[in-house]
Amino acid sequence: MTRPFLLLLLISALAGCSAAPRLKVTDIQVTDRTEAGIVLKVSVEAENRNEVEVPLREIRYSVKVAGGQTFTGIRSAEASLRRLGTQSISFPAVIPLTAGTPAPSGLVNVEVSGTVAYLAPGNLSKALYDMGISRPSQSFAGAAAVDLTP
Fold first, then answer.
1. Partner of 71 for a Cys bridge, out of 28, 30, 89, 93, CB 3.0 to 4.6 A?
2. What number does CATH give the domain 3-147?
3. What is the pTM of this model?
């Protein structure tokens, strides 16, 4: 066997030693509204099934309102999931409003999807993450009817 294949096999075996966080969109709500836009707060519940803390690194996400207007964001997760625990993570989405175009109002379907990059347990995982070789991530998606009435 070649060295790159053995390295890949080793990485794959070590990645299986820990469980990825479970992610679930739990809430989407309006936090602010101006003539320029609507600010939504998205909450995701993250569950760590590991015996050790799991640091979260980055959240990449998109929010689609009524099948049209979309917001895409990248944020630092600014959290670590405690061992065998659950934690709520929140992040904003700004939906710009265009002058002269009617703003969405009433109950509107809002869809959220994205990924959370995390650091798998172990020193080797940290070294592989820092070198850009292994960047584990877990996806999430959800939707809710959100009242956008001014």
1. 93
2. 2.60.40.1470
3. 0.82
